[in-house]
Design brief:
Number of strands: 14
Order of helices and strands: EHEHEHEHEHHEHEHEEEEHEHEHEH
Helix content: 25-40%
CATH class of the largest domain: Alpha Beta
Strand order of the largest sheet: 8-9-7-6-12-13-14
Distance between the termini: 74 Å
Structural class: alpha/beta
Radius of gyration: 21 Å
Amino acid sequence: MQPNKIKVLVVDDSQVTRMLLVHVLGYDPDIQVIGAANHGQATLDFLNAGGIRPDVVLMDINMPCLDGFEVIRRIMETQPLPIVICTATADPQELTVAFRSVEAGVLACVERPVGLGDADFEPRVRNLIQTIRLMSEIKVVRRWPRPRLIPAPAPTGDVSKSSAASAGIRLIGIGASTGGPLVLQTILAGLPNHFPAPLLIVQHIAPGFLPGMVEWLNQTAGLQVQIAAHGVNPLPGHAYIAPDDFHLGVGVGGHMILTRAAPESGLRPAVSYLFRSLAETCGANAVGVLLTGMGKDGALELKRMRERGACTIAQDRNSSIVHGMPGEAIELGAAVHVLSADKIAGALIAQFACRSAVAGEIKS
């Protein structure tokens, strides 16, 4: 056993899939597969045997004997490890279950390579290897049973539909990457269903996974979550997520724009495109939120939003899976507020209460 290599345990009930995953992980000289399990109980037996501890567990979610969700829960409650879900994207129900596993502690979901003849084989393998390398560096903590989130109640007092105009906030933009789905769930579940502004979201995610994430978010969010559509005017109390392979922006009239303009920093959708659009069309009447994620996407544009008078928020280091994007924004001086994931929803609600109070003082 070579101590400097990233040690991976592969778990899948299909022997063909296990062999394929072991083969493609061998492309990277820094990764070593230390074991392969064919079902959930075999996974726990391997980990409980007291042998070599993996740095990452790569597993499917639907398995016999003990399903992946239960395996993940037990691992994270007893001997926490970075876990990456590797699954096909054809079955929406399976994808929804995969995102439920994020609540139990899964760090990332990736597409499964399907064979050498597939056109997407090489990019899927690259993404798989990059994800394992990144997740192996994450320090996970023990996860105790987490109650299902309950949507926030309808707003009262200052935070109401009528307060939106006086607050002046037209749109809220949110950007996220690695670790983002769970933070988005926390934020959206903390907002009331009559929240007085629309939310536009860019979440970096593997193609095909978005419908499952939207369905999962809708199970706990007070707001209605949906995939953004070109030319549609976003409504208060709704969250719109950029679709696969389209940038999401805002037109002068307030309608959503989807475009296949060139990728930015290799990304489409890019947070940078959304934030730049909000800075140009909404100025001070927007809020920008940059969440956990690898790289720098959106950091410079969040600063542009702040320079135009917008309220800007960056997630803090302690609650971020990867502090790349928000950390870069903080370094640039782009963030008015640096907040933990569980404080962001309250800060968004407070923006309306605060601005409405100021507007009332001006009128009087």
